[in-house]
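Researcher: I'd like a structural prediction for the single chain below. Treat it as a standalone chain; there are no partners to consider.
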Amino acid sequence: MPEGIKLGVLALTCVAASCAALMPSAALARKPQPSAPTHELRCLFNDSHFHLTNYVQQGTDMGKYVDEIMGDKVCRSTVFGIPLQQTWSYGNSGDFAPTYYLQSDAPLYYYSFTDAYIASAYLKLRPDQRRRLDPMITGFNPADMYAVDHIRRVLETYPGVFTGIGEFTIHKEFVSSKVAGEIASLTDPALDRILDFAGEVGLAVILHSDIDMPFAKAGAEPVFLQQMKDLLRRHPQTMIIWAHIGLGRVVHPVQGQATADTAERNPAYRDLVEAMITDPTLSHVYFDISWDEVAKYAVSSPGSIENTAAMLNKYPERFLFGTDNVAPKDQATQLRVFNMWDPIWAKLTPEASLKVRTGNYARIFDAASARVRAWEAKNVK
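Model: Treating it as a single chain, here is the predicted structure.
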């Protein structure tokens, strides 16, 4: 284990104790915090981005996830399904039943039952298991002006369960074009309604929206960057986590060199991110470094490792680690993405390491839980 993690884990007990002391009573009603459980003394991270089920709503048993897959290595975790269901079109794939969006040309459609499934599974858990999870609402269509009504109904039906909304998607390579119905947009007032309501309730938001189109030309301004910043600035009272820092399989970190097609030199990707971090109008925005694709970029070269570590050390309070795992079958699978970051963990200060791996998660999701419970106490009859 890298030295930074060893020192960071040693401090985790104090962090857990201080959070318990400062959390409002409404949050404590749902997540009682006696002494720090044994697993918290040696766990590696909190998982800010975890899918219990896949694109055909199959997945891991939630109790098994906590006891065996999280085990003593993952302190706490978000838990949500996937809001999109892959159609099994016999005319497209015959007897082959696709379980992933890249396995079929058939469309995806929104599957709202995912929220009821997550809530039902959560409510069957033991209290000690529940304390380690933060369920999220995700079964809504962000292009639908009625999406807010779905979120409100879920909170009213399952009070005391959910901490936030997401991961939900606006622009995503290979996915957006497959979704049946109207295509989501960063400029859609339906999305503004969702984020306004999240701010009112206190829901934490995990938003996936690629920074650019697939296979964009190096040196060009990322297509969706300005729209994303404009959206974020319209909702300063909402805690928003930008999933994967806007990256994807083929949506790479933008390059800093000019090309034959443009005479302007664009800032490197780290400069784009740093400009957002230092922008006071975006102080409510955080960045998750989940997904193995993001990890591949981060450790792709010695220079990338140095740059990424420098960014995390400089602004450790703005980043959260997550796996973006989908229905893992065992703990080794759950830890694979975390271990990909080993070259970077080794270069972080103990303080930065602790914040990125565990502290920021606790701060953001504990605050969200307290606010949501307070809203429910006032509004759910």
